[in-house]
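Figure 3 (text version): structure tokens given as input.
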């Protein structure tokens, strides 16, 4: 959601922070702000994107070697200059940027108002900065003590950076449920909400854990927890290249990431499939294999696109491993008093590894005694650290808000998991196991073939760019793909779209079909082929427009559909990996033609760190 950048060292802080905020803009982008805190505090805040803040600040002196910056995704209070971070305290002693939500902010605000505090903004962050100042001014204490005492009184989540004007040359960072990474340079430290703004300066990082507080000067770091117990900072090496977070000649990150899928899938299965393609070994799960093999039920948890990948996982695991699976939204699971047994295995799927609802669901499952596994993309993020074991998707950094390569990488992991489980449990024959492994290894090349159709897909996009509604239909393994196709379209082009199991169309959506309604149908040669052909006819007889994703060489659907997009022949269990790609491209081109901001669609955030 919101993004945090901080710097303390000998370099000019402003350009480092601006650049870092631009790298983080994919997280949230309704307003931004910077504070330079050596000497008199200089505060710049602007509604809109980071470039607007940059243009505005250019009229002023931006010198300084200690500072902090923030991109905001509004939770409390609309996006405007006043609600933007950083927030300074009433008497100007503290300046704060904050990700997360202070849940008891209303009560705290009332108490502070009772003692004379007047609030300028509607944010929970201004409450926190004033609480810290109030505690600081009341007692004989250091800034760091005041921060710790205040944090022990708040309920909620925070990742924050704070400076105290009475104690210059120092920044304090703290974390609870909202990530903070510290980059370690030579006589300098960088602070950020994820590693992307840091990697061009240093590969050495310290991830803060929940309740950690770090006190930074340009040449020292002191780490402790909110209870004042000293901790030893653990410096880790980042395994990330700067090229991975740049567009590399593509117009948008989303297009780059769609095109990266053959590589992302390859990297995800590489090293996990034996050289002679006859076995799968998921190293991260080895020590827990006995418990995984004994699982009586698997519960998959995710949000958004990750939930769709989970649904593919359900179909795969039930069919190939014959273990019952439930797929849950993190937000529902955490609050609906679910039944969780000790012999359940829970798989949490998340690109960012930071989604608040998924994290809360994980904690619930852990408390109930289940084994909790993670399938995450961001190395070192919260979910891999909170789960008992897991498998990373090696998709590389995903910057476009609409998830693409993370989805196919997640489905790749779930496919390997289902195959491995099915084979080890004896539910899957050796022959089928090997055939599916060989097919998985062939998927990257098959996606390359789909990507070659980009121009033809663009032509189809041009025909439907002005649609107001769209329907996506699929059956079996391709029903989750229909959901994902619809989500991609609405996220980035703002066209209302719905995904449906094709047969369910008759129970509602069919009423919407007329000559203006594009219906995207997954109609490859699989076990549902005949049924889906009937569904296409039902749409056509109501004058709907059919755009069908078909198997190469298909002829009969060509005659029925308005347009077809061919994909290579694929074993049906692996069809989601191929069929989703033309849908991603269609959404991308439609959004570009509609003039939408593809990489930063309105109101959305890449990493949803609030519930
Ligand atoms: C947000 C993103 C989606 C993503 C979802 C879950 O809504 O915009 O692209 O699918 O969060 O995020 P996660 O990081 O947990 O996969």
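Below: residues designed for each position.
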């Amino acid at each position: 959601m919101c993004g945090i950048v901080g710097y303390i060292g000998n370099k000019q802080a402003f350009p480092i922070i601006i650049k870092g905020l631009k790298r983080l803009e994919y997280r949230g982008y309704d307003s931004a702000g910077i504070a330079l805190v050596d000497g008199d505090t200089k505060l710049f805040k602007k509604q809109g994107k980071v470039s607007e803040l940059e243009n505005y600040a250019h009229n002023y002196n931006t010198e300084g070697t200690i500072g902090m910056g923030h991109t905001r995704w509004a939770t409390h209070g609309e996006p405007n200059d006043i609600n933007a971070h950083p927030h300074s305290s009433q008497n100007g002693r503290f300046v704060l940027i904050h990700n997360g939500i202070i849940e008891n902010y209303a009560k705290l605000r009332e108490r502070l108002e009772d003692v004379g505090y007047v609030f300028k903004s509607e944010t929970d962050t201004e409450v926190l900065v004033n609480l810290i100042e109030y505690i600081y001014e009341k007692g004989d204490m250091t800034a760091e003590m005041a921060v710790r005492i205040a944090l022990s009184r708040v309920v909620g989540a925070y990742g924050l950076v704070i400076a105290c004007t009475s104690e210059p040359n120092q920044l304090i960072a703290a974390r609870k449920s909202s990530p903070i990474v510290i980059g370690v340079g030579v006589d300098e430290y960088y602070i950020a909400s994820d590693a992307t703004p840091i990697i061009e300066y240093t590969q050495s990082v310290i991830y803060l854990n929940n309740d950690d507080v770090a006190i930074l000067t340009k040449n020292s770091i002191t780490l402790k927890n909110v209870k004042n117990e000293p901790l030893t900072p653990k410096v880790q090496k980042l395994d990330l290249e700067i090229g991975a977070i740049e567009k590399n000649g593509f117009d948008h990150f989303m297009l780059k990431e769609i095109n990266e899928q053959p590589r992302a899938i390859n990297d995800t299965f590489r090293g996990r499939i034996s050289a002679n393609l006859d076995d799968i070994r998921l190293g991260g799960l080895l020590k827990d294999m006995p418990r995984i093999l004994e699982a009586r039920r698997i519960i998959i948890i995710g949000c958004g696109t990750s939930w769709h990948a989970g649904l593919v996982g359900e179909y795969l695991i039930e069919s190939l491993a014959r273990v019952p699976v439930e797929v849950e939204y993190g937000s529902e699971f955490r609050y609906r008093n679910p039944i969780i047994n000790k012999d359940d295995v829970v798989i949490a799927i998340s690109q960012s590894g930071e989604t608040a609802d998924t994290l809360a669901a994980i904690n619930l499952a852990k408390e109930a005694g289940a084994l909790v596994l993670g399938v995450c993309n961001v190395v070192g993020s919260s979910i891999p650290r909170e789960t008992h074991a897991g498998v990373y998707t090696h998709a590389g950094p995903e910057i476009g808000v609409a998830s693409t390569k993370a989805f196919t990488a997640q489905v790749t992991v779930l496919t390997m998991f289902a195959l491995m489980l099915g084979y080890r449990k004896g539910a899957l024959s050796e022959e089928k196991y090997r055939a599916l492994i060989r097919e998985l290894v062939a998927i990257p090349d098959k996606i390359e073939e789909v990507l070659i159709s980009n121009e033809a897909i663009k032509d189809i996009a041009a025909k439907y760019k002005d649609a107001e509604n769209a329907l996506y239909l699929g059956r079996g393994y391709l029903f989750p793909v229909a959901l994902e196709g619809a989500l991609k379209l609405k996220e980035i082009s703002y066209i209302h779209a719905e995904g449906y199991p094709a047969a369910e169309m008759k129970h509602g959506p069919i009423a919407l079909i007329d000559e203006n309604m594009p219906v995207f149908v997954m109609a490859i040669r699989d076990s549902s082929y005949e049924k889906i052909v009937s569904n296409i006819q039902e749409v056509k007889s109501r004058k709907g427009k059919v755009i069908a994703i078909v198997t190469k060489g298909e002829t009969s659907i060509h005659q029925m559909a308005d347009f077809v997009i061919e994909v290579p022949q694929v074993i049906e269990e692996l069809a989601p990996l191929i069929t989703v790609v033309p849908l991603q491209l269609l959404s991308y081109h439609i959004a570009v033609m509609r003039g939408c901001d593809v990489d930063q669609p309105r109101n959305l955030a890449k990493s949803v760190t609030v519930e």
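The CA atoms of residues 471 and 519 lie 5 Å apart.
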